[in-house]
Design brief:
single chain; alpha/beta; Rossmann fold; seven-stranded parallel sheet; 7 strands; binds NADP nicotinamide-adenine-dinucleotide phosphate
Length: 239
């Protein structure tokens, strides 16, 4: 579609989740070898089934991406096995809302920072040295519209996503001129099964689809996007 990813090796963290599944499928359809982190064996099996013939290009492991040592070891295995890592997409994240800041427990606050900020840090820390050696690589970190639009009742979520964008922005400055590109994307509500269950009365047609967002991520990781570095790309749709 955008330039075949054949022989490319792509790590999709959270690659069996609502958005992650579509991102993994997009890279598999494009001919890339895709290595995912997952938490549920059943979700990994479902992704393999859905990928059909391309499922042969899918690998994965149950890795806690908030654990820096586990992520480092996981990336080490990918590099030993394949000798390269062309792209990394972080789709791990979590949401906590409906709580004013003073009602937010330290546990919820820490969970937001772990899932939405620490995940991007541990993954970038593990993959960037290999990409620097290659002199090439692309990273996309999934933040959220909430990073720039700070609604009531979602202080911990908004702060964690805003910090994630700042981290990636600073990483982009660190990587200037190296051939390694890094960008954030900012979805609003995505049309996932979980959101349909949580908001049954909503107009689902208005929500961007995971496959549509996956196409933007595929583009950002492709040579066609070589001029895009340090961006935070809104993917809210025009509706
Ligand atoms: N859905 C939306 O409307 C929306 C809107 C704006 C931004 N976003 C962002 O988009 C990204 C993807 O969202 P999504 O809806 O696809 O979420 P999701 O369905 O929950 O997918 C996230 C995946 O990451 C996994 N995960 C959770 N904690 C992990 C950990 N410590 N280590 C490894 N994997 C872990 C989840 O496993 P479990 O399912 O087992 O927890 C899940 O498979 C997130 O960053 C989210 O914040 C989503």
């Amino acid at each position: 579609m955008i330039g075949k990813s054949s022989e490319k090796v792509v790590l999709v963290a959270g690659g069996t989740g609502g958005l992650g599944h579509a991102v993994s499928r997009a890279f598999l359809d494009d001919g890339a070898r895709v290595v995912v982190t997952y938490r549920s064996e059943a979700e990994f099996a479902a992704l393999k089934d859905a990928a059909d013939a391309e499922g042969a290009l899918l690998e994965g492991d149950a890795v806690d991406v908030t654990d820096a040592q586990a992520v480092e070891a996981f990336v080490g295995v990918i590099l030993t096995r394949h000798g390269r890592l062309d792209a990394m997409v972080n789709t791990v994240g979590g949401y906590a809302g409906g709580l004013k800041v003073w009602e937010t427990t330290p546990e919820i606050f820490n969970r937001m920072l772990d899932l939405n900020l620490r995940s991007g840090y541990t993954l970038a820390r593990a993959v960037v040295p290999a990409m620097l050696k290659q002199g090439a690589g692309a990273i996309v970190n999934v933040a959220a519209k909430a990073a720039v639009d700070h609604a009531a009742g979602a202080g911990a979520y908004a702060a964690s996503k805003a910090a994630a964008v700042a981290l990636i922005d600073s990483l982009a400055a660190d990587l200037k001129g190296t051939g390694v590109r890094v960008n954030s994307i900012l979805p609003s509500i995505i049309d996932t099964e979980a959101n349909r269950k949580a908001m049954p009365g909503a107009d689902f047609a208005k929500w961007p689809k995971p496959a549509e967002i996956a196409r933007v991520i595929l583009f950002l990781c492709s040579p066609a996007a070589q001029l895009i570095h340090g961006a935070a790309v809104p993917v809210y749709g025009g509706g």
